[in-house]
Amino acid sequence: MSNAAWETLSNQAVAAAGIVYFLALLAHLIEWSALRSLPVAAGAERQSSVDIPGGVAVATGPDEEAEAKLRRTELFGRLGFLLTCLAVAVHLVALVARGMAADPNRVPWGNMYEFTLAGSFVVALIYVALYHRLRLAWMAPIVVAFVLSVLMVAAIWLYAPVAPLTEALTSYWLVIHVVSAIIATGAFTIGGITSAMYLVKVRGSEKTTGYVARLPQPEVLDRVSYRLHAFGFPVWTFAVLITGPIWAHQAWSSYWNWDPKEVWAFITWVVYAAYLHARTTAGWKGRNAAILALVGMATLWFNFIGINYFSTTSQHSYADGAPAVVERR
Question: 98, 126, 188, 246: least CB-packed within 10 angstroms?
């Protein structure tokens, strides 16, 4: 295939992934809309003893009509998850084709459009991978809507034609550094969503119907959030404090350049380090921990996207669209 054909395939795969994500979102919205009319109490009791952590609270009992409706809603839930898995596979095709479209072939994260494609893919991949292990059915409409929205932003506002990598990016340290940073970003994002839902659940703990009533118990949400952040932090540390400086030294002859991206990456590291330190040493759980986790996610995504639009001095200027010349020091 020619480079133009690979680029066309990538663009078509992005569009197809967006359509499948949208269908998955519809399936989950139908599921949760139907669940609103089903009782919660019995399911919530079962969830606290059997379904922890993180399943959908539903009631069971002698009501055959309710049981039949529950089976139908579960069908839409399984359909939504299968569609999400299919969308993730198509999303991967878009990334691979994007890399194959370049001459020479390269990793698919040479600009902001490609970074966003890769970042949203990892968020969806981590969600799918942990769906059964952490029982994340309750998170389905939020994650799918988030990934779909980011994909739409990338396709509509961030798109850039395929181009060769700049000199600073032609390094195997790019692969190591960016892969680890994107994996941590996905874990932190899923953890941040969980923390946000913790705050929503605590505030609406007395609700007996609707989406909030079917969220896992606050202690379950708190524990799931902690596990995700505990996984993401060492990966982010590896990306920010080890591979990043090595790559910077190779590209700019200096391990630390006070580049805005570097500074904000370190700020993000400090916030998450404080979050984990407070939890492990002071037993700081619940609302305060959730708020700190959301602060961390805000700094993370500001560094990921905001720096490219608010900073004119960043040496990572190649990430805002078309490649720019990055001078060596």
Answer: 246
pTM (predicted TM-score): 0.85
255-to-245, 246, 262, 324 alpha-carbon distances in Å = 5, 6, 10, 21
Burial of 311 (0-12, 13-18, 19+ CB in 10 A): middle
Residue at 199: amino acid letter: L
Distance separating alpha carbons of residues 287 and 282, to the nearest angstrom: 14
Six token digits for residue 165:
């990598």
CA distance readout (Å), 216 to 40, 152, 209: 11, 30, 13
Low-confidence ranges of the chain (pLDDT < 50): 42-54, 60, 62, 321-329
288 to 91, 209, 269: CA distances (angstroms): 36, 26, 18
Q: 46: which 2 tokens?
A: 């079962």
Given this model, what pLDDT does residue 318 score?
52
What is the 3 state secondary structure string of 206-242? CCCCHHHHCCCCHHHHHHHHHHHHHHHHHHHHHHHHH
Residue count (the chain): 329
Helix (H, G, I), strand (E, B) or coil at 118: helix
pLDDT value at position 285?
82
Which residues of 60-166 form beta strands (DSSP E)?
none
Task: Look at residue 48 in the predicted model and tell me its pLDDT.
Answer: 38
315: nearest Cα among 242, 249, 237, 243: 249
Within 10 angstroms of residue 21's Cβ, the number of other Cβ atoms is: 28
Q: Which of 267, 262, 212 is nearest to 36 (CA)?
A: 212
In whole angstroms, give the CA distance from residue 100 to residue 106: 7
- Residue whose C-alpha is closest to residue 189's, from 240, 133, 248, 130: 130
Please report the pLDDT score of residue 322 as a whole number: 40
Domain range list for the chain: 1-164, 165-329
Nearest to 247 by CA among 165, 303, 183: 165
**What's the CA gap between 111 and 297, in Å, rounded?**
21
